[in-house]
Amino acid sequence: MRSSLQRRAPTLLRTISRRSQYEAAIISNAPRPAAAATRPAAVAPQKRWHSSVNADEISHFNALASTWWDPHGSSRALHLMNPLRHDFINTCRSTSLSSSTTVTPEPNSQPTAGQQQQHQAPKLRYLDVGCGGGIFAESAARLPSTHSVTAIDAAPVIIQVARQHASKDPLLAEPTKLRYINTTIENLASTLQSSPEGSKFDVVTLFEVIEHVDQPANFLSHLSNHVKPGGWLVLSTIARTWTSWFTTNFMAEDVLGIVPKGTHDWNKYINDDELRGYFSKFADEQGWDLSSLMVQGVVYVPGLGWKEVQGSEKVGNYFLGVQKKA
Ligand SMILES: C[S@@+](CC[C@H](N)C(=O)[O-])C[C@H]1O[C@@H](n2cnc3c(N)ncnc32)[C@H](O)[C@@H]1O
């Protein structure tokens, strides 16, 4: 009987040979080769041929919805990753705040101008795209420094689960604190047209989503419209390497079972160089400050959870943050 590795190796070799095509698609806004959905999308986009939504991905995630909040269930790896997401956002944002705001004050000392500025800084408006059941969205909404979280996902069943879970926490009951919308990034601008919150956000997050969308460059260009001048786009995804296939497809899905089978399509992984290429190419058009771009590799260590490992962005999972010019 053939092992799973033997069964999947020919597919991997075929997909590696298509690699240059995928790279071109990421940078150029062109659709990924052979990526067009053949079934209707769960959330019908206004123009299907421009949709980032892949119907198979959405039905896969809808099927996982009921166990989303089980810390030992299908989304275990996402629950464990959540604290690192906040750390990374803080790291990104601290580079654009006055350095004095990060200094621990002496007891009884007067606050510095920088600390006063941070204290008085307006609270943050977050947009969490592909929010799933709300692991990050809920945690962000609970922060004292948060004004509001708008969280969107293309999977309708997941959005129901997210709303239901949030309704159990009175802290999140305030209607403006956390709102879930079942929509696509392509339709978000029109959905938010008359929203008092506006359609631009201080922090736009995209955690473990870009490797599930069709036409990632198109997706990012829609997303960029929702980042305020001076705001941050923060994402996490997976590099397309032999090692990531072994760890995220073979080990995590087939052997250890910490991620449900079929969650990841190795072809859709994106390397940090490809994202750097995207942001360089569209820096002027979309207003990205390339000097702010930050990447941090993270590794899942069984029994210990996710750990930051310098350089591992070239191998597997990583965070990327980039700021818009003010
Ligand atoms: C791996 S889950 C990550 C969920 C969440 N960001 C987290 O990390 O906890 C990927 C999510 O992206 C959503 N998704 C996939 N394609 C999407 C698209 N084109 N637009 C919006 N959401 C999408 C899925 O429905 C799913 O909830």
Please trace the helix and strand order, writing H or E for each element: HHHHHEHEHEHEHEHHHEEE
**According to CATH, what is the class?**
Alpha Beta
Number of domains: 1
How confident is the prediction overall: mean pLDDT?
Answer: 83
Query: Which spans of ≥5 residues are poorly predicted at pLDDT below 50?
Result: 1-21, 33-48, 98-109
Helix count equals 12
For this structure, the CATH topology is Rossmann fold
Shape: globular
- Proportion in helices: 25-40%
What Rg do the Cα atoms give?
20 Å
CATH architecture identity: 3-Layer(aba) Sandwich
Give a list of the ligands.
Answer: S-adenosylmethionine
Strand elements, count: 8
Distance between the termini: 59 Å
Question: How would you portray this structure in words?
Answer:
- The protein has 326 residues and is an alpha/beta fold.
- The protein has one domain: 3-Layer(aba) Sandwich (Rossmann fold), CATH 3.40.50.150.
- It contains twelve helices and eight strands.
- It has an eight-stranded mixed β-sheet with strand order 3-2-1-4-5-8-6-7.
- Helix 9 links the parallel strand 4 and strand 5.
- The N and C termini lie far apart (59 Å).
- Bound molecules: S-adenosylmethionine.
- One of its GO terms (biological process) is methylation.
- Pathway: Cofactor biosynthesis; ubiquinone biosynthesis.
- It is an enzyme of class 2 (transferase).
- Its EC number is 2.1.1.64, 2.1.1.-, 2.1.1.114.
- This is Ubiquinone biosynthesis O-methyltransferase, mitochondrial.
